[in-house]
Amino acid sequence: MKKIDRLFASNNEVEEIKRGGRKPFLVKFKEFWIRSYYETKLSIKAETKKQFFIDMLWMILGNTVLAFGTQVFIINNELITGGVSGISIIIGWLSPDGLVDINLIITIITWALFFIGLLLLGLKFAFKTLVATIIFPPLLYLFSMLVKEFPWLSLSNDGIGMLLGAVFGGFCVGTGCGFTFIGGGSTGGVDCLSLAANKYLHIKTSIMAFFIDASIILIGFIVKKDLTLCLIGIVSAFVAAIMIDKVFIGQTSSYIAFIVSEKSEKISDRINSELERGTTLFSSEGGFTRNRRYVVQVVFDRKEYRDIKNIIAEIDPKAFVTIMHAYEVNGYGFKKLKKNKFTLNEIIAEDKKRSFGGKENEDE
Question: DSSP states of 131-159 as a string?
Answer without folding.
Answer: HHHHHHHHHHHHHHHHHHH-GGGSPPSSH
